[in-house]
Specification:
Three copies of one chain form a homotrimer. The first copy, chain A, has 273 residues and is an alpha/beta fold. Chain A is 51% helix and 14% strand. In chain A, α1 packs across α8.
Chain lengths: 273, 273, 273
């Protein structure tokens, strides 16, 4: 079933609007092309509504936000909502500065997101800031492990219910949850944390999966997360003796380019909780 | 003759000022170094005139334009005109938003370009917006094919006559035309569309060829387009089983680094129409 | 002793705040990860003080400065000074425009830098602009060679005394000097000038070495410069027949990822003057 999500990306070739950081933007563009989508980047408030209207999905990443791009993020998000396009939020660094936290919270308030993808600490920051964590959730740890997985799943489902978005918490174990169902995903490789932007790339690619599978945001997100992790595994196997993190970066995108729906179907490692 | 154009780049090592998008800027810098030129990027209106004055050519790419870089593009373009430096316009996404279309048209009005390089849809947008298309041209198709090549050549020549610029329309078949002569170029490989920024890179490299061959803008542009396509072919032959679009991106720039004037001379596939 | 500097980076994993240009920012992030540090990029004036406070070091690079990032550079630099964090200045293009020269001079006036790293022409611009060059120094050549090395060393020491910063002048021979001691470093390979951003990457990596070795800025800087050069040598040896400048770029970062303290200790080629 997850393989079908990728097949749809390759068949529909969705155009994805990215308002994203300048650190990893080239990788985001290339991974979108690799998975079968097409990228466009535009962040001036005077054009983002038009650009979003041309596209099939919107990826908002606050990694190098500034006072000029924040209004563009909000305007584009609202326009995507009007058009019922999927919109993803990647709250990079939420919790690291007041500007990031407040911007992410403002975006949550003004835009209905289809998916929110971040690490556990970023997602916790949003959950606490929007007053949605109570009981068990307030205590969720800063790393998802086998030991605290049930607790983290409960937290993700609760935040999904609160926001109406699919919540994707990525780390050693990834959780992709709506209010009722969570995919716990064990694809990936620890070396992925040795390159910049695997998270940003995943957010861009997830938006493509959402755009090509608009009625199934939970499965589409799970498929993208499995695909990224699986490609991280395949790329790791390809590493030669002298290859380091920069070669690994390229091998992951190469693997996304080669990934077939069948491979994804067979290689996805997840359980539902 | 086209080989000589490259030889001049390697001999003169021109410094090229780029006001370009943040998506593909690193690749633009590296391809400039690969072909024998040197890059400098500067986009603040307070410094662009000075920077352009130091350089031998100016590359204006509107891929991630914003309200702060638009005035810088205009100021730099005017300064390059004053100094009789070659100036190239890459109207990325013209037609996709009013801001892009209007900015490209404003640039056309205020700056005399040596070359305008884009895909057929971007160039048509400019031609229609500046009121230069009539008769056959208004009907030119959205892809250049063997069937409509004569029509597309006529359109390119007409727009070249109107603007006084060499028009480079890149696609499956590339057209490089002034008012009288068109190079129809069949170098390249379809996989080039699977990576972001081959167009941006070509624009940067073309500016280097222009700067090193200031009296022959038509041949210099044709040489750069042939060189890019030829390197796309060579890079494709180099691809191993696991290589995907990201490796391909690197192999193209590597091939530009290795390309000799002789290879270019022998490998350029074009006819004049 | 220099090997120990790298060992400390790998052990302490310092978080480095970068306000840097958008041309080479991805490479800066990946080289920081490769050497054992972690990157964060943030350049909005509303958040840079908070971000710097979270970090162990600050890297300021003026490569694509603009009117919005200049105040952020100053604010972040002052905050780093308050917290006694190491701060590095990379005055990219100082001398190429009034905006760059004045910004670099203003930064020198308002921020106490731990290290200033640039090429000889950039450093000379700063030295002359801040009124610190007299006597022999005003005559220092535009390239450091064996013939003028003593003169360049004297210049570097004098500017170090004047600014209170370690001065790192990189080129065919690198000089890393405080007021009393200079490392003259002969690692590196000429091909490093064929890729964009080796200087920017070195500045980012040097900041990591400073953050992990806060009491030894001179040795830490020398270690980073030796490490970069050594990796440039190793990467050059790895080049295959078809590899060009883009592959070389990746191989350097890969080599940084693999570099061990022992290799650095043994491979560092320097003398003290």
């Amino acid at each position: 079933m997850l393989g079908k999500m990728l097949a749809n990306v390759r068949e529909k070739n969705p155009l994805i609007h990215n308002i994203t950081n300048y650190v990893t933007v080239n990788d985001c563009a290339n991974i979108l092309l690799a998975c079968g989508a097409s990228p466009i980047m535009a962040d001036d408030v005077d054009e983002v509504e038009e650009i979003t209207s041309l596209c099939a999905g919107l990826n908002i990443n606050i990694g190098t936000l500034n006072q000029h791009t924040i209004p563009a993020m909000i305007a584009a998000g609202k326009q995507a909502n009007r058009l019922h396009h999927p919109v993803l939020l990647d709250p990079v660094g939420a919790g690291a500065s007041t500007l990031r936290t407040n911007t992410a919270l403002q975006l949550l308030k003004e835009v209905q997101f289809t998916v929110i993808r971040g690490n556990i600490s970023e997602i916790k920051t949003l959950a606490m800031g929007s007053g949605s964590t109570k009981g068990v959730d307030a205590d969720v740890a800063d790393q998802v492990t086998e030991q605290n997985l049930d607790q983290a799943v409960a937290f993700a489902k609760e935040f999904a219910a609160k926001t109406g978005a699919v919540i994707a918490i990525t780390g050693a174990i990834d959780i992709v949850a709506d209010a009722k169902t969570a995919y716990c995903i064990r694809n990936g490789h620890p070396m992925m944390s040795k390159i910049t932007g695997t998270g940003c790339q995943l957010s861009a690619m997830t938006t493509a999966y959402l755009a090509a599978n608009p009625t199934e945001p939970l499965a589409a997100t799970a498929a993208a997360v499995c695909a990224m992790g699986l490609c991280g595994q395949k790329a790791q196997e390809r590493l030669g003796e002298q290859d380091g993190n920069l070669s690994y970066r390229g091998y992951i995108i190469d693997a996304v380019d080669h990934l077939t729906p069948d491979e994804l179907e067979r290689g996805a490692m997840y359980e539902l909780r």
